Amino acid sequence: MKEARETTELVKRAKGHDPDAFTELMQFYMKDMYRTAIAILSNDPDAADAIQDTILAAWEKISTLKDNRFYKTWMTRILINKCYDILKQREKEILFEKQVDTAGGRDPAVQEDPNIRFKEMLAILDEKYRVPMMLYYGQGYKIKEIAEMLHIPKSTVQTRLDRGRDKLAVFYESRIV
After folding, report:
1. How far apart are CA 141 and CA 131, in angstroms?
2. Would the CA dihedral through 125, 126, 130, 133 be positive or negative?
3. Cβ neighbours for 163, distance < 8 A, ≥ 6 positions apart
4. Overall average pLDDT of the 56-69 stretch
5. Any idea what DSSP says for residue 17?
């Protein structure tokens, strides 16, 4: 309870354009933001970009937050939107690269990625299962909050959590055998 009161007070101060309070809020939620961004984007540079864009948007729009108690939910929704913007941009870039590769006659090279194992773990689940699971298990959001953030019914969140758990269980059982 004390943590919630402190966060609400920081949000109130940040709304008053106190940069120190806003910085403290961002530092407090940085790990949660990273977990969410990496769950959606699967790589550090894009996750860092999404977080940076989120911080800027949150600072610029903090006065639009209606209820200070819901700061984390509000900020996470901004982050998810920024992540989806990056995914859309990535798709456009991939289409463009394929057109250039086809036109230029080059073979598209597979790039080495130092985080390949981490990406493989995240790739076990489709994004529609991965994001709710990260929000629920990684950050402790309630099903109702996740439903609001993702603009889907609570029953859909519950179903995706159930199916995500089932898919992980099947995956890990098949690796043990």
Report:
1. 11
2. negative
3. 129
4. 94
5. T
pLDDT tens per residue across span 129-157? 888 888 887 778 899 999 998 889 999 99
Give dist(CA 12, CA 4) in Å, integer: 12
Which token pair is 91?
């798709």
Q: Domains in the chain, start-ordered, CATH in brackets?
A: 1-114 (1.10.1740.10), 124-177 (1.10.10.10)
Residue 106 burial (CB < 10 Å; 0-12/13-18/19+)? exposed
Neighbours of 139 (CB within 10 A): 18
- Rounded to whole angstroms, how far apart are CA atoms 69 and 170? 38
Cα-trace Rg, the chain: 19
Contacts of 86 (CB under 8 A, 6+ apart): 41, 46, 49, 50
Dihedral in degrees, nearest 10, Cα atoms 55, 118, 121, 154: -10
Task: For residues 39 and 14, give the distance between their C-alpha atoms in angstroms, rounded to a whole number.
Answer: 28
